Here is the input.
Amino acid sequence: MWGENDPCLYYAGWATSDWPGTMGMVFSPSVENLVAQLTRLPGVGQRTAQRLAFHILQRPKEEALALATALQEVKERVRFCRECGNLTEEELCGICTDARRDHSLICVVEQPVDVVSLERTAEFRGLYHVLGGALSPLDGVEPSHLRIDELFRRVDANGVQEVVLAMNPNMTGEATAGFLADRLRGRVRVTRLASGLPVGGDLEYADEVTLGRALSGRREM
Here is the structure.
């Protein structure tokens, strides 16, 4: 049950005795600001932001302040790795400084979150290069906006033998992969992540592009 002095009952400036029973209530400025900031997060709409805001209000003050401290620390301490562009709190990330990794093999991805996904597989033991996005001229994203020149410098200077292109299989990802392949071909071996039918998927639900790639990428058993 809500207490009479619970801050959530005052989120719109109404006490329990003033509860109007109408949908016309207006959030207090501080809660409005919190909701507005939460809606900036990906996948968070207005209703979800309101639920999160009320959840934060209901939690003890220490928990809310711990969240605020974590946000402040991550923005102040986390940076991009000087070598690969992955997230780190040091000059170089743990992957780049790991002597057990294959330094002749680089996997190129769009964002740091893609490194996390690939590392979960425990299949790749090389290094990474994070571009920071994908080419999209319509959105104003040109080669100079990505870490493409840094990739070329790594390939030329560090004895790299293979570059794995692991862009997302969409229009911008394919365009980026094609752009990089054209400029890396002849300098280093260039490969692309295989694409096709997902495990557990049914043929009847697969689109033509996915089926076509599955057929062209078929292998002997």
Summary: The helical segments are 29-38, 46-58, 61-77, 112-121, 148-157, 171-184, 208-216.
